[in-house]
């Protein structure tokens, strides 16, 4: 349950004060301890979440990271590798100083380029109270997301918004969201999100669309794979081949059109918990920061599936 707005503002301010006084790394490692019950091993990480934390706090200054995390700049990066046909049609880009000229109308999605979240689907209410809506967008752009998450690349992204065509249909249905986890250029797992803004369900699969028994939000009826799964895997591996780990988000519309969503460097900011917890280490072995063979991870995954 979300905090009341005044309480939330006090909480956010207190968090930023703490980060300034004792430093972002200490605060982030403490958050990890509270989530996972242990201090993260940053220089000899074993689990997926530890390796995400090592990327954030030790290896986060790769010059490629601000480019692919920027919702505007990544479009050119993606088009150079897989072609413009996979990009959601763009309706405009507005710098911070140009927001007073922002065109607001239904059928759009407005995205803050310099953070996760900060995504809006304009309604008639937003159009009526245009000034309040633009103030809200400015607040999101001003929010220091790099310091808040410990993901330094966000601090190097310009404050601007991307306006794209909305993929939500006339009935308000949101297309399924497919998240491809790419380790050393190979898709190992795929997470599918269904009805994200309603009765949100999600399921994790391997690349052959075999269910991985992970979490407690699995749909009652296992959905079939996307019709163009093979092409989506190829796209994800093309985009991910330059990194030891990355998540590629894609949409499939009516089994015909594939659209690129985003690239994610630190899924869940390393604070996602796994049920069963063994999968944190299994998935971590796919990311070859340590020399543990991937075959061991695959064998343990099969063992857990049999146990489930």
Could you list some keywords that capture this structure?
308 residues, alpha+beta, six-stranded antiparallel sheet, four-stranded antiparallel sheet, 10 strands, 37% helix, 19% strand, globular, ATP-grasp fold amidoligase family protein, ATPgrasp_TupA
Polypeptide structure, described:
The chain is an alpha+beta fold. The chain has two domains: 25-61 and 174-308, no CATH class; 70-79 and 86-171. It has helices at residues 5-22, 24-36, 48-57, 65-69, 73-82, 124-128, 130-142, 145-149, 229-240, 278-286, 294-307, and strands at 90-95, 108-112, 119-120, 160-165, 177-183, 186-194, 201-206, 211-212, 245-253, 257-264. Helix 1 packs across helix 2 (24-36). The longest helix has 18 residues, at 5-22. It is globular and about 55 Å long. The model is unreliable at 290-297 (pLDDT under 50).
Number of helical segments?
Answer: 11
Q: What does the average pLDDT come to?
A: 90
Shape: globular
Helix/strand-derived category reads alpha+beta
Q: State the order of secondary-structure elements, H for helix, E for strand.
A: HHHHHEEEHHHEEEEEHEEHH
Strands of the biggest beta sheet: in what spatial order?
Answer: 8-7-6-5-9-10
- Give the proportion of residues in helices: 25-40%
Give the total of domains: 2
Count of individual beta strands = 10
Query: What summary fits the major beta sheet?
Result: 6 strands, antiparallel
Low-confidence region ranges: 290-297
Based on CA atoms alone, the radius of gyration comes out at 20 Å
Task: Report the sheet-strand fraction.
Answer: 15-25%
N/C terminus separation: 31 Å
InterPro entries: ATPgrasp_TupA
Protein name: ATP-grasp fold amidoligase family protein
């Amino acid at each position: 349950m979300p905090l009341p707005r005044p309480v939330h503002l006090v909480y956010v301010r207190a968090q930023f004060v703490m980060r300034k006084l004792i430093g972002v790394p200490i605060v982030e490692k403490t958050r990890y301890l509270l989530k996972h019950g242990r201090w993260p091993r940053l220089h000899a990480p074993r689990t997926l979440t530890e390796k995400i934390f090592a990327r954030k706090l030790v290896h986060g200054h790769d010059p490629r990271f601000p480019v692919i995390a920027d919702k505007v700049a990544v479009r050119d990066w993606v088009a150079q590798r897989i072609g413009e046909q996979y990009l959601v049609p763009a309706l405009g880009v507005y710098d911070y100083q140009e927001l007073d000229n922002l065109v607001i109308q239904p059928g759009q999605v407005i995205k803050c380029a310099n953070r996760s979240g900060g995504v809006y689907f304009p309604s008639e209410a937003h159009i009526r109270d245009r000034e309040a809506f633009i103030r809200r967008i400015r607040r999101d752009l001003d929010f220091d997301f790099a310091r808040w998450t410990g993901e330094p690349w966000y601090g190097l992204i310009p404050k601007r918004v991307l306006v794209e065509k909305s993929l939500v249909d006339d009935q308000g249905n949101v297309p399924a969201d497919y998240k491809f986890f790419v380790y050393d250029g190979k898709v190992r797992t795929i997470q599918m999100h269904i009805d994200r803004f309603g009765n949100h369900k999600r399921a994790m699969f391997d690349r052959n669309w075999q269910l991985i028994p992970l979490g407690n939000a699995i749909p009652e009826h296992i959905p079939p794979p996307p019709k163009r799964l093979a092409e989506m895997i190829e796209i994800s591996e093309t985009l991910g081949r330059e990194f030891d780990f990355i998540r590629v988000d894609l949409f499939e519309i009516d089994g015909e059109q594939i659209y690129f969503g985003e690239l994610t460097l630190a899924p869940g900011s390393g604070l996602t918990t796994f049920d069963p917890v063994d999968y944190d280490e299994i998935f971590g072995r796919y990311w070859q920061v340590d020399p543990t063979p991937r075959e061991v991870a695959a064998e343990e995954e099969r063992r857990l599936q049999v146990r489930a």
